[in-house]
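Ligand: magnesium ion. Inputs:
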Amino acid sequence: MISPSECGCPPPAPAFTPKDFRSELKPIWCPGCGDYGVVTALYRALVAIGRPPHEIAFISGIGCSSRIPGYTTAYGFNTVHGRALPVAQGIKMANPDLLVLVAGGDGDGFSIGGGHVPHAIRRNLDLTYIVMDNHIYGLTKGQLSPTTPRGSVTASSTHGSMEDPVNPLLYTLAYGAGFVAQGVPADMEGLTRIIEEAIRYPGFSFVNVQSPCVTFGDPEDQLKVQKTKLKKLAEMGHDSSDRLRAMDLAQEYSRSLYTGVFYRNPNPPPTYDSQIRARQKTLQPHPPEGGE
Ligand SMILES: Cc1ncc(C[n+]2csc(CCOP(=O)(O)OP(=O)(O)O)c2C)c(N)n1
Ligand code: SF4
Ligand SMILES: [Mg+2]
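Predicted complex:
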């Protein structure tokens, strides 16, 4: 069969538009919250993926960011704080044909839910985990989160934080995630492409989105500042198959705003869901002797 690029024909129109993925619920995020940009990038990435909303399950924890499944037409489950990944893994195992997206905040993913991340990575189900990292607990009104920089004054560190932050990029790379990327809503095109690539990766993929909290966050983290600070890995000639170089770059998490794919395993290992299906076939009960 001749492909559209070979025959010079225009590419076929996408089956969906962003509207098909937008629910009727109006987001109640504060005006200017970075999460608006994340959901917009997600609608666009889903258009590029081309699967209908009823084939998508979107699972979150609790937090401002965890409201995101409700703003899509996919099946959604706003679960328990820190428990998005276990629920999502169960759903993917029960129905491996679903496209399973997982989302939440920095607190949800790296504080109360931090213990689930290594196990989701090593189990390697085909999921995409998007963390809206605003370096603060937004929903509960501005307490210190696991990614809050040292020295930050917050509702629960009134004289400045005395703790070093967790580095989500290094954390997921160190545990062996096959796909690790970072995006910002200030670069909508880049963020859309990153989310699309993460969904296409056959295995656990992680996207850290530096998504500003305009109400409780650091003014230095906001969209306007992001635009001046971001450095695109693709333009730096970064080889995303080089895991050690990815880890070097990830060390800069608190100092430099790198965006793009840090690491993509060029030889993705088998996923847990595919192994389960294969084993189920080998463990089928034998027909009774002499019977059908
Ligand atoms: C078991 C449990 N502990 C604590 C809370 C209170 N709580 C709700 S959201 C949240 C933190 C939200 O921060 P984050 O996950 O970063 O999301 P954001 O609101 O910043 O998007 C906390 C502590 C809760 N709902 N459930
Ligand atoms: S409190 Fe912060 S994270 Fe929550 S909706 Fe408002 S700006 Fe967004
Ligand atoms: Mg947060």
